[in-house]
Design brief:
The structure is a single chain. The chain is an alpha/beta fold. It has helices at residues 5-13, 15-18, 39-55, 65-75, 79-85, 91-101, 104-116, 138-144; strands at residues 29-34, 60-64, 123-127, 154-164, 170-174, 178-179, 191-192. It has eight helices and seven strands, in the order ααβαβααααβαββββ. Strands 1, 2, 3, 4, 5, 6 and 7 form a seven-stranded mixed beta sheet that branches. Helix 1 (5-13) crosses helix 3. The protein is globular and about 50 Å long.
């Protein structure tokens, strides 16, 4: 789906969206899909979107999931060693190390919640879902975030498709072809921003 910057600005700056009005106690998580072949254009659009929203006075955070993983590795003094010794690593060993330090429950979600900031933040835009694959998958982030952690809406920009089934389940398809396990629990299900209207 093509980006419509004006439409996104309209939705994300709307007082009802920012105050999470009408979500009926659902988690304020939203997915905005885009064509993976247009990654560069998507990054430029997200930068423009953030600038436009900030110009209207909205305090927001733009957080890249890959940068969060790098911060975690740096904090544990592993990043330099991984970069230096990467040619000697067995691919499985490297994958397991990255997966361990990006584990949502023990590492990534606490870092993400901290990065989202205090009560002054009104919106968070998450990027980098494709950059952290395969050691971190977006559906695990959705399943790990608890409502109590979110004081404002969070929009995840996702390079692929987000399909919601008539039976209430949903699927993320990274790059349009790599399916995630079905997300059945509506408590964790994100709203598809492609079809969201205010």
């Amino acid at each position: 789906m093509a980006f419509d910057l004006e439409h996104l600005v309209h939705i994300l700056s709307h007082p009802d969206f920012l105050s999470m009005k009408g979500l009926a106690n659902e988690v304020p998580l939203f997915i905005r899909t885009y064509d993976p072949a247009k990654e560069d254009a998507a990054r430029r659009l997200i930068d423009s979107l953030a600038a436009r929203l900030r110009n209207t006075g909205i305090t927001l955070k733009v957080i890249d999931l890959f940068d969060l993983v790098l911060e975690e590795l740096e904090e544990h003094k592993l990043l330099d060693d991984l970069l230096h010794d990467e040619p000697t690593f067995d691919k499985r060993e490297l994958f397991e190390t990255l997966q361990n330090y990006s584990d949502p429950q023990t590492h990534l979600i606490p870092r993400l919640v901290s990065a989202m900031g205090d009560e002054g933040t009104r919106l968070t835009l998450l990027t980098g879902a494709g950059r952290v694959y395969p050691f971190l998958r977006t559906h695990t982030i959705l399943e790990s975030l608890q409502p109590a952690m979110l004081r404002h809406p969070v929009v995840i920009f996702f390079p692929g498709e987000y399909v919601q089934d008539p039976d209430g389940g949903s699927h993320l398809r990274l790059f349009g072809s790599i399916p995630s396990p079905k997300i059945n629990n509506p408590y964790y299900r994100a709203t598809n921003l492609d079809h969201f209207r205010i």
